[in-house]
Amino acid sequence: MDGEKYSASLIRLWRVWRTTKEMMNDRGYMIVEDDMSMSLDEFSRRYAREDGEPDRSRLNFSCQPSEEMLAKYTDAPSKKNPNPTPNIGTIWVEFNADENVGMKQLREYMAHLVHGSFHSGIMVTVKPMTGMAIRLLRGATSITDGPKGGVEVFVEQDLLVNITKHELVPKHVLLSDEEKQQLLVRYRLKQTQLPRIQSTDPVAKYLGLRRGSVVKIIRKSETAGRYASYRWVI
Amino acid sequence: MPTPYPPPRDMPPKSILKNKNKNATVSANAPPGRKPANPRHLAVARHHASVLEDRKRVEGEVLEAVMTLMDFPTSPDADAKRPSPADAHLFQKAVIPFQPADYDALIEERNIADKCGYALCSRPKKKARSTARKQFVDTDHGVEIVDRKVLEVWCSDDCAKRALYVKVQLSEEPAWLRQGGYHDKIELLVENEEEHGQALPLRLKQEGATKADGEDEDEDADMNAAWAAHNDALTDLALERGDKPGQLSKANNDLIQDHITERASSNAPPQAPSLPAQTSDHTMAIEGHVPRINRKDEGDDDDAQDWDKHLPG
């Protein structure tokens, strides 16, 4: 039995790691296919220590955005800015092994991101961060010493299962800036007239949606087959 | 069939659709011909915006303070009992906007960084005897079982006392709601109090300046004079407020003292209060006033004409 052969924490981390890889793939980063379907056997061979416990420091990885994603995150060219640069770049994913994560670890992590010139980062922690660290994170995009794209923090427990694979979760697709403008012109709307979605929504967190972007939600419909709605991230 | 009112030739038929060029600008900030904002609504909106802004500013301040206090004290060999004046002053100033919850967060952050929870202590936190989650502790009333986390907060009981002494002085009210700003003074439990003259402007001026040995005595004298003046001013203020000496002052926000002074009771039987001695000629006095009619020492002759004097003309 697998459950007896491997320690519970290793199995747990294997699932977390797989979900993280799937999440990066869904966001549009380039991920090796094998990583997402890695078996527990393989995972334990590569990332377990001798005592059967997972070695978190070996799990950290970085990934590059794909061409498609770069295009999606590039603003439409305007008069002011005829050659816009994409608002996305290399991301660093770190699995923190500390029991308690506070401002100290968060600051070290942000310094590491800036030092390694990563655009953004994701930290996966064992337990939820302290309140002050969350407050620091909320203001981190305005703090000059943080990375450009900001830092996201996930708790391992939230990544045990991939929520987007649940049958009740509809498909969410981020619109690029150009698509958003087309949508607004097509329906003669201001963006404030769209329905909204919070950026703290689980799926919005999963996709790393930023404030002001528009997401297309495609649901199954009994009468129409498919039904698309659009939501503005606040 | 001709229509009864044919449209005039020179005018194109009027469209029932909305004006096209009006809708062309979808994302325009303000539609043309918009009514000017109601000044009252504008004022309300401004007010709320400034309240939110203030709140954000205070929260930022607290965050900054926690960040600096995490790395306190500035020197690695600082003593919690006798902190350096500069550190103590900074600490006092930084915790003023704190709520007790923020202070708890500071202690938590310091513990994560493996430091004693008291910001003026440089020692690491105490280690529990084992890594078990629950620990046995011997107390006065038998053995207690407590969380390991509770044990590993302070370096010593003394530090815990000093840190909690600060915590109980913090205001529960969020700093952005405090009326008239927030400038209550936080007291520290220190043993070198004479070195911390933060309340005096005199001290503030000289803080940080290196002083020669000869100046030391002068400064001490100045300090004492300043303290004396300060105390005098406080007594005057207390008198003005109507405080009586020996009573708890009305403006006092100190903690209640734990030493109790007992009044010595005398065994003499209580005396009934006596009226002030009355002389015989004032027996007719009504609350101290003797009506004229009963006065013996004044002549009655001009009294009869009294009513006349007050008449006009």
Automatic annotation (TrEMBL), chain A:
Pfam families: RNA_pol_Rpb5_C (PF01191), RNA_pol_Rpb5_N (PF03871)
GO MF annotations in UniProt: DNA binding; DNA-directed RNA polymerase activity
GO cellular component term, pick one: RNA polymerase II, core complex
UniProt keywords, alphabetically: DNA-directed RNA polymerase, Nucleus, Transcription
GO biological process terms, semicolon-separated: transcription elongation by RNA polymerase I; transcription initiation at RNA polymerase II promoter; tRNA transcription by RNA polymerase III
Subcellular localization, as worded in the UniProt entry: Nucleus
Main location: nucleus
UniProt superkingdom: Eukaryota
Domain RNA polymerase subunit H/Rpb5 C-terminal residue range list: 161-233
Family: Belongs to the archaeal Rpo5/eukaryotic RPB5 RNA polymerase subunit family.
PANTHER family registered for this protein in UniProt: DNA-DIRECTED RNA POLYMERASES I, II, AND III SUBUNIT RPABC1 (PTHR10535)
Protein's name according to its UniProt entry: DNA-directed RNA polymerases I, II, and III subunit RPABC1
Organism of origin: Decorospora gaudefroyi
Automatic annotation (TrEMBL), chain B:
MF term (GO), any: RNA polymerase II CTD heptapeptide repeat phosphatase activity
Skewed-composition ranges (Pro residues): 1-10
Keyword Nucleus: yes
Catalytic activity from the UniProt record: O-phospho-L-seryl-[protein] + H2O = L-seryl-[protein] + phosphate; O-phospho-L-threonyl-[protein] + H2O = L-threonyl-[protein] + phosphate
Keywords linked to the UniProt accession: Hydrolase, Metal-binding, Nucleus, Protein phosphatase, Zinc, Zinc-finger
Major localisation: nucleus
Location in or out of the cell: Nucleus
InterPro entries cross-referenced by the UniProt entry: Rtr1/RPAP2, Rtr1/RPAP2_dom, Rtr1/RPAP2_sf
Source organism, top-level taxon: Eukaryota
Bias-annotated ranges (Basic and acidic residues): 204-213
GO cellular component, one term: cytoplasm
EC nos: 3.1.3.16
RTR1-type domain location: 93-179
Region (Disordered): 1-41, 199-221, 262-313
Enzyme class: hydrolase
PANTHER family for the chain: RNA POLYMERASE II SUBUNIT B1 CTD PHOSPHATASE RPAP2-RELATED
Annotated function: Putative RNA polymerase II subunit B1 C-terminal domain (CTD) phosphatase involved in RNA polymerase II transcription regulation.
Similarity comment text for this entry: Belongs to the RPAP2 family.
Protein name, entry field: RNA polymerase II subunit B1 CTD phosphatase RPAP2 homolog
Organism: Decorospora gaudefroyi
